Fold this sequence. Notes:
Strand order of the largest sheet: 11-10-12-13-20-19-18-15-16
CATH architecture of the largest domain: 3-Layer(aba) Sandwich
Amino acid sequence: MKPPFAFPFRQVHLDFHTGPAVPDVGCDFDARQFARAMKDACANSVTVFAKCHHGHLYYDTKRPERHPGLKAGLNLLGEQVEALHRQGIRAPIYLSVQCDEYAANTHPEWVARKPDGGQVKGGGVFDPGWQILDMSTPYQEYLAEQAREVLKLFHPVDGIFFDMCWDQPSTTKCFLEQMRAGGADPRSEQDRQKYSHELALAYVNRFHGMVRQSSPDATVYFNSRPLGNLAEEIRYQEQVEIEALPTGGWGYIYFAKNVRFARNFNKPYLGMTARFHKSWADFGGLKPYPALEYETSQMMALGARCSIGDQLHPRGVPDPAAYELIGKVYKRVAEREPWLLGATQVSEIGLFQAPVDPRGDITRISGADEGATRLLMQLKLQFDVVDAASDLSGYRLLILPDAVPVNAALARKLGAYVRAGGAVLASGTSGLNPAGTRSLLPILGISPHGMSPFTTTYVRFGAQIDRDVPNTEHVVYDPGVRVTARPGTQVLARVVEPYFERAWDHFSSHAQTPPDKVSKYAAATRNGAVAYVNFPVFGAFARHGNYTYRLLVRNLIALLMPQPLLTVEGPTGMEATIMRQQTPKRRTIVHLLQYCPEGRAANLDLVEDIVPIFKVPISLKLDRRPSRVYLAPGSAKTPFTYKKGRASLLVPEVRGHAMVVFE
């Protein structure tokens, strides 16, 4: 009987976007040497190219799109796949979707158009940049012909990776005619956006079915789809690949936030970083080993498989330094796989994500998302990212950061959750109308009176939440909502308003107006198991990094959710997660990460040093005393105590990444 497919932990995503002006494509390619380089780098899956963004093909075909510089007689993709398979390495195949320079240049009528009639293109007319294709045009069938050929020639395929698959509005004749046929108004931006989403779902469904019909065991992934749409689109995805090159525009928080949502859909998921110093195709740019160790360690700690991006040189020879780096990292991952296989996350907080803007930059997340993720990670709390459709019953606490819209259905769901014993923390206009004049969530126990007229206010902490907080008024740099407590609701902190609103003709000193006196308005309240903060504390934390905002949230959570699963006495930059295995043995694994990316250049955070720390106290809530505690990989026992349902110990050393196993 064929064993069940186990999605690999060590993948290389091998870009090969090679322009037609390159004359010597594959001239130095040696299939055995290529596959040996991947094997030596401990990769067990390599995504290889059938078609790149330039629209060129790299296999044996009579189609005119075959790369003009590809060595005569060379079936590059075919030899790559065959050689990788001989080494026991998977070889999913890459196809570019909405980026195709060859098609755009030969059929300009297929290029997506802006409302003013101009091309949708990366950059200006004379800038190098991809032209974006419109999937409502005959281009979709052109792509389908290419896909069918690939599926036939390489049957059965291990998988297909479709790239550049976002919702793309357009104003081509085909797009507008299809909109009108469906009863939509082509003049409406909202209708164009809506139809672009319907069009994307239609072609995603089409190509997914095409692949699975040809190769039933193949993995299929459509990259560049909004991760916030997974509830609607997961049926078309056999895995979730979170493209997140930290130095390539995504930053170090994008993966950490989105993986906590992606892992809720019962499909394999992986993080995709790259070996590049900056972003894709950074030839000659090599990332320091500590950075790549951190990025793959974070993937492991959050239950994800690993993918490292590279771009093969046009001549077809893997870069020796790049694969020495990848091999060093992947050897380390392979050593830890016995404690990764089948492990699932253990979380006690559900963090609602901010509303998803389908037109937004996919490499960015909102301030509330970033601030909440950073803040909860710094507090070492265990959380998933959820939405209104999620099963909320397994969480002790739900957090609605800053601006989560609450309709009647969600209000009822949250009310039932609280009645069943759950707790809620909301901030800003979450649970209110956008103007802050009406409560849509009765369990908050507050009366809102609109947005504060003051840009900057202050907060005075009350005795119940002032642990570690200096005794002063603390500045709030962002506007909040004026709220008062309803009967039965406690006021835990109050708003201190300034003398006046600072203006060009009415100001005092260099910055915000000083505090005047404590107002009647609440800054933080508690209504039983529900707490509320009147200002957008999570976005404010992302924008300003004021540690008192973290203390405010920490102290409120301590009231709502005493005795968290895990406590760690380590630096704020240390990350801590909990994973659990049921087989081969019942294990709980605590991952501790201490890397601390630094701002080494403008818009570039990087890890270059791994500095160990010693004797880190941790305490984990467990139903029964573990038979042993040890650091993995390895099996040397670590002394611990077990009292009142908690196992406690000093972790001897955290050198970047430590795995503490409770067995």
